[in-house]
Amino acid sequence: MTTLFATNLPPSAASRAGLVDLLSRLYAQQLEQAADPQQRRYLLDHSSNAAVIRRHVDAFVSYRPFLPATPRIRILDWGCRHAADSCLIRATLGEQISLHGCDVHPPNFAAFHDFAHLQFTQLTHRWELPFADDSFDAVIASGVLEHVPNDSESLKELHRILKNGGVLIITFLPNRTSLTEFAARLLNRSHHRRRYSMGEIKSMLLHHGFQPKFSAFHQVMPTLAGGRRGWMTRAVQAAFALNPRLV
């Protein structure tokens, strides 16, 4: 998996543990409210084992120090779905920031959106965004670019709505050479439209007016267990500990 962001200065282990606990509680609350089977499956896929939540927190703490530090910044959680990143941002940066989210899916994740005080906009176009030019200081794209119908047009829009000097943070971008991605496609378990090499995404960002500042691989061993329990979940959780040694 590829992550592009501005720096890599993680907070303390205590802060990391607190963020893991926060997401765990929000997933539990949302599952209590969820009646739709598809939504429950989505939530379970992203919370069924501790490794899934830890990997999200690990990605967040890597890019967090490079979010703009000025007061009253405006951040867009693009393709936010349940907006886990927005919750982590709210928990660490407080109430002084303005958090916005957008997605083609309806906002059926009250536990997360309410905690983040998210200003949500449902999208009606495949790539056009209903925001003015130079609207945001930062855009978070967590596991989104590989799903959109047209990644080039989407990057044009993100460049348009970002202020001059704004930050685009991309996480969980599928790697073209990933064995996990290969296995997922072989088992018909991949939902990604496309994959990228590190060189491809850097060239694409440069082509659309962005200047890549930092890139890294942050995951080798798989974490999603498809909401399953038992030996598979235990194996995935144990394998997750190997990631720091392999990236």
What this model shows, in words?
- With 247 residues, the chain is α/β, with parallel strands linked by helices.
- 42% of the residues lie in helices and 16% in strands.
- The protein has ten helices and seven strands.
- Strands 4-3-2-5-6-1-7 form a seven-stranded mixed beta sheet.
Summarize the SSE layout with pairings.
Layout: E1 2-4, H1 13-33, H2 37-45, H3 50-63, E2 74-78, H4 84-93, E3 98-103, H5 110-116, E4 119-122, E5 136-142, H6 151-161, E6 162-173, H7 179-186, H8 198-207, E7 215-217, H9 231-240, H10 243-246
Helix pairs in contact: 1-3, 3-9, 4-5
Please describe the structure with a list of short key phrases separated by commas or semicolons:
alpha/beta; disordered N terminus; 7 strands; 42% helix
